Amino acid sequence: MRKPVVDYRGFRLSRINEPQFSHLKLLVGWIVYFLLYFLTENLIPAERCHPVHCWLDDVIPFQELFVIPYVFWFVLVAGSLLYFLLYNVDSFRKLQIFIIITQAVAMAIYIIYPTRQDLRPDVFPRQNILTSLMAFIYAFDTSTGVCPSLHAAYSLGIASVWLKEKNVPALWKVFIAAVVLLICAAVTFVKQHSAVDVAAAVPLALLAEVIVFGRYWRERLHRLS
């Protein structure tokens, strides 16, 4: 079995500033995000939110099969962070900073220009385990704070970091790219986001890409010139 690059068995909170553990401080970003998420979800009423909609939303049908990649997103985020935490701390830092940037910018937008979507079906076209799961998700995740889509922005960041990894097989990178595309499509098919939200996630991800990987791309361009 591959050995982790850091032995976390010796970690104590008092050692958080030591070089081998200091990257764990980046996880505080999740605490700040969940606090802001709770505040924006509960303190900004839906009536104050601007509805997001485009013609493509009317063309895309609700399809519960996309609940599978939608929910797999949670596994992708947690699994990717855990893998990099164990086997590539530099990639963990880059991915977590990428996520923090998208979180900070998106939350600022949600507060300054609150948005909502009114795309959820009143009645599911079918009743099965997937629609039941989607009903459960609808119940705890409101339809406000949607543009840009963090579901899509995180996914693009995860793909960016994995595609730059040197010690993973090409087939795994193809799998990650396919899953990310499915997730970005899934948020519209399960009516959690408008296509506008997904489109807005692209410049947000590009901003984070430039900040986090600007040096990487400058070196690539320099080698090509």
Question: Could you outline the blueprint of secondary structure elements for this entry?
Answer:
Blueprint: H1 28-43, E1 50-51, H2 55-59, H3 67-87, H4 89-112, E2 115-116, H5 129-140, H6 150-163, H7 170-189, H8 195-224
Parallel strand pairs: 1-2
Helix pairs in contact: 1-4, 3-4, 3-6, 3-7, 4-6, 4-8, 6-7, 6-8
Gist of the model:
With 225 residues, the protein is an all-alpha fold. The protein has helices at 28-43, 55-59, 67-87, 89-112, 129-140, 150-163, 170-189, 195-224; strands spanning 50-51, 115-116.
Strand proportion, as a percent range, falls in under 5%
- Quick one: overall form? globular
**Pattern of helices and strands:** HEHHHEHHHH
Give the total of beta strands: 2
- Report the uncertain regions: none
Helix content: 55-70%
Radius of gyration (Å):
19 Å
Distance between the termini: 41 Å
Q: Helix segment count? A: 8
Largest sheet: 2 strands, parallel
Spatial order of strands in the largest sheet? 1-2
Mean pLDDT over the residues:
95
SSE-based structural type: mainly alpha
Characterise the protein shown here.
The N and C termini lie far apart (41 Å). It is built from eight helices and two strands. The chain is globular. The longest helix has 30 residues, at 195-224. The chain has 225 residues and is mainly α. Strands 1-2 form a two-stranded parallel ribbon.
Which features does this protein show?
single chain, mainly alpha, two-stranded parallel ribbon, 2 strands
